[in-house]
Every structure is written in C-alpha cells, then in structure tokens.
Amino acid sequence: MLSTFLAILRRDLLLSWRGRADLLVTLAFFVVVVCLFPFGVGAEPNQLRAIAPGVLWVAALLASLLALHRLFAQDHADGTLEQLLLSSEPAVLWVLAKIAAFWLTTGLPLVIAAPALALLFDLEQSALPVLTLSLALGTPILALLGAVGAALTLGVRGGGMLLALLVLPLYVPVLIFGAGAVDAHLGGTGAKAQLLLLGGGLAGALALAPWACASALRIAME
Amino acid sequence: MTISTTTPGRAAVRPPQGWLRFAAPQQFYPLAGQLAPWFAALAALLAAAGLYIGFFVAPTDFQQGEVYRVIFIHVPAAWMSMFIYLIMAFWSAVGLVMNTRLSFIVSQALAPTGAMFCFVALWTGALWGKPTWGAYWVWDARLTSQLLLLFLYFGFIALTRAIEDPRRADRAGAVLALVGAVNVPIIYFSVQWWNTLHQGASVSIAKAPSMATIMLVGMLLMALAAWMYSIAVALWRVRALILERERHTEWVGAVLEAEAKAAGGVR
Amino acid sequence: MLQATDLACLKGDRLLFRGLALTLGPGEMLRVAGPNGVGKTSLLRLLTGLTQPEAGEVSWHGTALRRSREDFHRALLYLGHSAALNDLLTPLENLHFACAAAGDADVDEEACMQALVRIGLARQLDLPARVLSQGQRRRVGLARLFLSFHRPLWILDEPFTALDVDAVADLAATLSDHCAAGGTVVLTTHQEAPFARAPQVLNLGAYAC
After folding, report:
1. Which UniProt keywords apply (chain A) (predicted)?
2. Could you give the number of structural domains in chain C?
3. Domains held by chain B: number
4. C-alpha closest to that of B179 among A147, C134, A11, A125
5. Which residues lie closer than 8 Å to A63 by C-beta, 6 or more apart?
6. What's the confidence (pLDDT) of residue B197?
C-alpha cells in the first residue's frame, strides 16, 4: 500500500520536475500579484504594513487556485485516471498521493517565497515565522479542498471559472484564520488560537477531502 | 458462454408498493401536479395574514421606528435559505446512498428557491442597514455568512447546469451540496470570529429588541408562508425537470398529448 | 466467472442497448462486434465497473461488482482506447508506474524492461513517449499483458489498432495462450486476427434500441 503511494508521489514529482516551467509560472503569478497592491493602494509604509498579511494570503490563495486545473487534467486526457480508478488499491490512497505531490510542487514554493515578499511590505521580522507557519498549515487545506473542486469540474466546459466559483467560498475560513494569525501576532494577542484552528482544519480536511475527491473522480469518469 | 436477451423479463420486476412507489418519477409527476396548487394557495393565505399583521397590526418599535418591519420578510427569508440548503444536502445524501433519481431532481429543484430567499434576505438586510447603520452594507457576521451561502448556491446551480450528462450532473451536484453542508457551520463560525475581532455591529437585524407577541405571530406566519411557497415552487420545478429528463419515454409522450388536448378543449 | 444480467446502457439521454445478458467462464474469449456508435466501448466500461448500468447488474464469481470492487480489480486488466501514457515519461517509466498504480507493486523495473523488449520496443526504452509513433504507443500499453498473466480477466478495447501484421499475430497468440491457461478475454476489434480458436462473437447491433 505504501509502495503504491510512493510510486504515485514519485511519478508526479518527476512529472513536475520535467515540466518545471509550469511551476515557475505559479510562483511568478504569486510574486506579481503581491507587487501589484502597492500600486493600487499607495506606498505609504504604515498602510502597507497593515495590509501585508491579507495581501500575501489572498495572493497565495489565488496562485494555488490557478494551478488547480493541472491536478487531474493530464491524467484525465491520457487515460491514466481510468487505470487509477481500476487499481486494486483504495482510491483515497492515490488521491492523497496526488494531492501531496501537488502541494509539494505548488504550495510549498509559495510558503517559502512569502517571507521574502513580506519584506517588501516591511512586515515586522518577528511576524515572519507566524506567516510561514500559517501558510504551511493553510495551503495544504487549500490543496485538499481545491482537489474536490477540480475533480467535480473535470472536463466540464468553462471549468476554470466554475472551479473558482465552487472553491473560493470554501476557502474563506482558511483565509480568515491564516491572515488572522499574523494579525493577531502583530496585535499582541498571540497567534496560537488561529494556528491551532488551522491545524484542526488540516486534520479534518485530510480525513474528509480525499474521500470526497475520490467519489467525485469516480463520478467524473462515468 | 451464454448470451441472451431478456427483454420480456423486464416486466417481471414488481414496482414498489405503498408510498415508496412515488419515488418513481412517473408516479410522482401527477402527485406533484395535484399537491402544488394547494401549497401555493396556503402560501398566499399565510403571506396575506402575515403581511397584514406585520404592517398594520404590529406596533411601531420605539427604538427602530417603522424600519424594523422589514424583519417580517428578512428573517423568514434568511431562515428559509438556510433550511433549504440543509434539505438539499439531505436529498443529495439520500440520492447518493439509495441511488434514487427523484432525490437528485428534488435537490436541484430547491436550489433556485434557496438562492432567491438568500438574495431577498441580503437585499432586505441592506435596506434595513441604511437607516440603522448608516450604510447599505457592513461586514456584519450574519450578512457575510448569508453572502457566502449565496455563493454556495450559485456554485451548485452553475455546476449542475454546466455538466451535460444528467447522471453525472446529479451526482457531482450532490457531492458538492454535501461538501458545502459540512462547510457551512465552519464558514459561519469563522466569519463570527473574524467579525468580533474587527468590528462589532451593536444592533443585529434578527434581534429586534422587546419582541411583542404579535410581532412573533406575524413572523411565524410569514415563515410558514415561505415554507409553503418553497414546497409549491419546488413541486412545479420537479415536474418540469421530470418531463425534461424523461422526454424520450412513452409515458411523457402520453402525458404531453393529454395536456395538449385539455388545453385545446378549454380554448 | 464474469456474468451480466439484463444489462441496459444509457449514454447522455440515449438508451444504447438493453436486455443484454452474458456469462463468460475460464478459457473463453468473447469478441464484441457491431457498427460504430452501437456502444461497444460503453459495454466494456460497464463490464469493468467504471460506469454503472442503467438497469441490470454485472457480477464476478457471483458477487455484484459494487460489493467486490477490490477483488474484482485485482483480477482485471483493462486497456482502453487511450494508452494511458504520459508524454514526459519514457516507456519504461510509464509501464513501471502503470503496474505500481494498478497494485502490482512487486513488478520491478527489470520485468518491465523484458516486457518492452518482448513487444519490440528495445530501442525506445529511454525515449520520451511523445516521440513514439501511434503503433509504438499502443505497444507500450500492450506490454502490460506480459506482466498481467496473474490477472484472469482481460478486457481490451481495440487492441489491434495501429499494429503491423506481425504484431497482430503475436498479440493474437498471446491472447489465445491466456485463454488456454484458463484466462478470460473480452475484446472489440474491427480486423480479423489469427486466433488459435475462433472467439465467440457478440453482435451488439442486435440489442440496440
């Protein structure tokens, strides 16, 4: 069972490496969106400091949304998904492997890039670990919820926009607690509560989302 | 190896007896047609009574003045929009577990009504907010969750409309409704949390201070009217969906012919 | 034993066929025939459990597919229209992954290499799949046959498409061998192939609605 999980994880990571230009696009999108905000709201340092957590979080959320359609599209087109659904291993297992590979290649780079971008907004040094930790806990939830949406809209016309419509309302709690963690730290109340809630959310999403995603994929392949 | 046709064997399958037989679209279609007008009539009566009490009998609120009367529409609409999502999720679960097509049709028939109530609640909330808060929209926890619920409705409707294959649309919509239902409490809780951190609206729309008994009666009447209206409209929409889905079957042809004949006779 | 009773298949809102029943035991080969659009692929997908029938039931050794999914998928090899190849991976990587994903974790790279050599792709082992010809892509998919003799039921959708004459003969011999060893094969094809024993034919056109 573990060997199947690892085989799928290894294959998806290898594919991402061979098509690494796509990954750079996601990261570049994140950077560019973040850099747009000072042009829109003005470069007043206090204001930038105040909006930094929200801006970084919203941009990370949009960047991971943008990458979602890649999660199953290629496997759907070339018939691999069909073969995976006929596997004698439980579907939840390989769905989880695919989501893990997806997060490692699209979510993790955002988590790593965010502190550097936060410096552009003059965010307090002490808040950087909180920002990183909140993204490290939050972006996997985004990937898990997004995978369900990607499976539901697989092969549907206008799928990209539809995916955004389905998934964004579900992302709101993650955004609230993620950006809220950094705000709470800056406000002096401590970010422990928000981070714990994000951790709990991650555990819940890990338990439920792969299962919903697997049934959505089975429905999509009918 | 044996290969055979068993077409005559199909007749041997006994249709379910008792009330369960209405789970077959063919049986439910005439039943829905008979019931819907009654529910519609009840809705009209209850709404007339509720509006009369709300706008003429109930006293003016000494704090909020006449504006508070919007709660007679706002609160039942908000309640209904949440109930309908739960009912949709319930029928979706039933459909996925029992594999009954009618359950999916019912949940899809309910969605536009739910979205409509959601919108009415937001609209009346904004109208109430202007004189009370001085702005049409504040990011009040209740209003914000209501807005997100509206987006969930939009997502459900858009997904079921975008998928061509009715079977896949049914099931994909059902999974989405269930995912949404799991998330609704989480969204509500998170928005509440976020709201208390950022700003607290001192007056909330559902808490009309010192609710007189007569106000409560008016509101309950309106809530009942909303229930009856939802049921009537859902039944009519179910009928339309059944006809669309089963348009290739013989019984739909017969029904359409009979209805055309009846309409011709009246004219 | 693969059994289907009273099968009806709905595609979109069109009923393709209904009232179809079949029973296939060990050692039997069935060829599903019929004109385009009659529902051959749809029937094969029903038999694999990928889609659910509108009416009727498919069962494996007397248990409905719904209730024996894992056992059934351990016994099944299905090769569909598309070869399930990723363009960025080599034939060897593709084949090795396909085996691991299907649950055959014990198939190692060496065995995959032998299967590819056996099917005539010795010189393409390390090329990315996107440079392969149609016939070569097909062969990568078919190489799984040589690693799947432990799976009794093979369901193959147009396995002979894009293959040259020699490859067709070789494949037909492999399928015949599998049946002789107690396996069961269901396939669709438009061309004649030199099987050791002529397969039974199901003419799907007769059940069309």
Report:
1. Cell inner membrane, Cell membrane, Cytochrome c-type biogenesis, Membrane, Transmembrane, Transmembrane helix, Transport
2. 1
3. 1
4. A147
5. A26, A27, A29, A30, A33, A106, A110
6. 64
Q: Which residues contact C112 (CB under 8 A, 6 or more apart)?
A: C92, C95, C96, C99, C143, C147
Report the CATH number at residue C73.
3.40.50.300
Does A79 contact C103 at a Cβ distance shorter than 8 Å? no
- What letter would DSSP give residue B20? G
Pick among C1, C2, C6 to test the B interface (most B CBs inside 10 A): C6
Q: Which of B162, B178, B180 sits opposite A156 (nearest CB)?
A: B162
Per-residue pLDDT band at C12 (split at 50, 70, 90): confident
In DSSP terms, which residues pair with C58 in a beta bridge? C4
For residue A15, give its domain range: 2-220
For A83, name the nearest residue in chain C, comparing CA atoms only: C102
Confidence of residue B7 (pLDDT cuts 50, 70, 90): very low
Q: Which long-range contacts (CB under 8 A, 24 or more apart) does A164-168 make?
A: A164/A65, A165/B151, A165/B154, A165/B155, A165/B158, A166/B155, A166/B158, A166/B159, A166/B176, A167/A65, A167/A68, A168/A65, A168/B151
What's the order of all strands across the beta sheet hosting C184-188? Answer: C76-79, C153-157, C184-188, C29-33, C200-203
The phi, psi pair for C29, rounded to 5°, reads -125, 130
Q: Quick check: is B8 in a domain?
A: no
Q: Provide the residue range defining the domain that includes C166.
A: 2-207
Pair of tokens at residue A216: 């959505």
What total number of domains does chain A contain?
1
Could you give the ipTM of this predicted complex? Answer: 0.92
State which amino acid sits at residue B196: T
Q: How far apart are CA C174 and CA A182, in angstroms?
A: 64
Residue pLDDT, tens place only, A16-56: 999 888 889 999 999 999 999 999 988 898 999 989 999 99
Neighbours of chain A (3+ CB pairs under 8 A): B, C
Phi first, then psi: what are they for A188, rounded to 5°? 95, 0
Amino acid at A81: L
- Chain A residue closest to B173 (CA)? A152
- In the structure encoding, which two tokens stand for residue B89, read together? 């999720």
Nearest CB neighbour to A88, from listed C70, C86, C93 = C70
Buried b (16+ CB within 10 A) or exposed e, B199-231: eebeeebeebeeeeeebebbbebbbbbbbbbbb
Residues recorded for chain A: 222
Whether residue B261 is contained in a domain is answered as: no
Q: Up-side HSE of residue A61: CA atoms within 13 Å toward CB?
A: 24
Residue pLDDT, tens place only, A106-136: 999 999 999 999 999 989 899 999 999 999 9
DSSP characters over C52-71: --SEEEEEETTEEGGG-HHH
Tokens of C110: 């060496």
Question: What's the rounded Cα separation, in Å, for the pair A61 and A63?
Answer: 5
Q: Is residue B123 part of a domain?
A: yes
Residue in A closest to B146 by C-alpha: A169
- Is B214 a domain residue? yes
CA distance A70 to A221: 17
Domain containing B82 equals 70-242
Tokens of C182: 């107690």
Chains that touch B (3 or more CB pairs under 8 A): A, C
Alpha-carbon distance values, B36 to A140, B230, B234 (Å): 47, 10, 9
Rounded Cα–Cα distance for residues A11 and C98 (Å): 10
In C119-161, where does DSSP find H-type helix?
Answer: 134-142
